[in-house]
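tool=predict chain=A
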Amino acid sequence: MLRNPFKKKTPLEHFQTRLLQMLALQMPPEKITEQLLQDKQLADYHAYIKEFDPAMIEIAEELVQKWSGR
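tool=predict ok
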């Protein structure tokens, strides 16, 4: 079932959307972490985000590029 585009996203949906967008843009890992931590809507995830390993983000970027066919 498709999500209603007019319905407000849950915090998890917002987190996933933001992260995926930045991974697809291949932003530097530090910039991704910085931007996610600046997002007040993600306050509940800030402790988790602070633990991101830059190498993990780089691998995630590679996977996003591969899976998206870019």
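The CA atoms of residues 30 and 54 lie 7 Å apart. The longest helix spans residues 11-24.
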